[in-house]
Amino acid sequence: MSRKSIVRIWLIIGFLTLFFYYLVRKNLSRDYRDLEDAMGVTASNISYEIMPPRSAPFGVDTKQIELITVFEPAFEAFTPEDWQEFWQVIYGLYPEYSSDNRRIPPRRRQLTMSEIQEELRLTFQHPFLYFGQQHWERFWKIFKIKK
Predict the structure, then answer these.
(1) φ and ψ at 108, to 5 degrees?
(2) Domain, as residue range, for 68
């Protein structure tokens, strides 16, 4: 092969590469943004799991006893599995699907007070379905949750 044909082949390869890059550059920029977003969400989730704003104190048993004492007949029928599910509602992390982009993992968060109330009413209809405002105020004082 002559030198001219080698140069022509490299020019054709270069033009094809530029054309291919032109076709996929939008996808590449979207991939890069998705990668940045996914890394941000993953870092946020890891930090949230390590240090959540609301974490179960070492004295969960004391909170359990206090709940049984303050709301005496309501929590007597709770089984150990019920208590485990109850603590999961209060202190657990839940996925939040904020976008339609499936390449970005869901952001984890804890439930707000109103969401906790609704979840407890759905999960444990007795006693929470019958809780009034004064009951919820006493309930939140036990847990010292303000938001």
Answers:
(1) -95, 145
(2) 3-143
